[in-house]
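Bit of a strange request maybe. I'm writing a small parser for structure token strings and I need a real example to test against, not something I typed by hand. Could someone generate the tokens for this chain?
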Amino acid sequence: MEQVDRLMRQAVSDDVFPGGVLLIAKDGTVIFHAAYGYANIFSKRPMTEDTIFDLASLTKPLATTLAVMKLVAQKKLGLGQHLGQILNRFNCSEKARIRIEHLLYHNSGLPDYRPYYKRLIRLPEDQRKNALRALLMQEPLIHPIGQETLYSDLGFMLLCWVVETASGMRLDRFVEKEIYDPLGLETLFFVDLNLEPQQLNFAATERCPWRNLLLTGLVHDENAYVVGGIEGHAGLFGTAGDIHQLLKALQSALTTEAANNLFEKEILQRFIKQNNNTQRALGFDTPAASGASCGRYFSKKSVGHLGFTGTSFWMDLEQRIIVILLTNRIHPSRDNDRIKHFRPILHDTIMENIRNHDTVKG
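Reply from user aminoacidic:
Good idea to test on real output. This should exercise your parser:
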């Protein structure tokens, strides 16, 4: 893995990101785990293997999607259920016929993004969540339901509402109780902005112009931030090690019939199956036909996701390979997008190294 190590060091030198943590696992065993650069360029605090990152949109597959999966297993939710059946306030809305699977597939007809925070920030904190949900209700569809695939934060805000209604618990508390705690994951969590800030080993993100501070341990996503840090599309923080343990549990559930698995094999298989003619599974991405962020060597039986802050994971279920790349590429500014070019090169180099090692070993 010398080439991989050199590539990561070069990326820091070339300002692809100030710092990062890379974890590679094969057949359930970690074969590479290293930290590079700085967690904070101003204090010169070094990145470490246990640095905690703002995972941004990795919240979608690693929290919200898994919460829906658990509720399906508990018979409290069905993928074919309509929004109007779960959330009464949608009964007379054009969105009443949106199914849970539409939200997970990103083909609900909802827009991708709206800067709701600009309106919500003017309200008292205890009114913002309800106000956000009122805005989601009022938001017009821009495509017919089920017709177009458009990656949507709004869909996952609705899924947060669905999860909390079906479970009777707040999203962060539900995933902690049902998934993270049983797996012993102590560094995968939401940061509740209504509690005292935690002084942990966080990677810094953006020097935010409208909040007028350098974000460290505070969710970067503005819409999640303004409602207290806990949402379906963003808000999760974590380490590479705990993400690996979670992905390993998913991998294990697919390959064993053990009754004590946290995830049900049949349900999980349904979630990771690619939707026809798209690169979406239920809550997960799959490799694009060309220009995939996971490069050229991940099989079609792979799932993953990217996060705006510079985070990603890819899991090849056929080759049993997991690659987790966590960086603070938006530190100190989101204008740095060099990671787009870097990601596929890194993943190709990793896969070539694993293949060469396996060939030599064989």
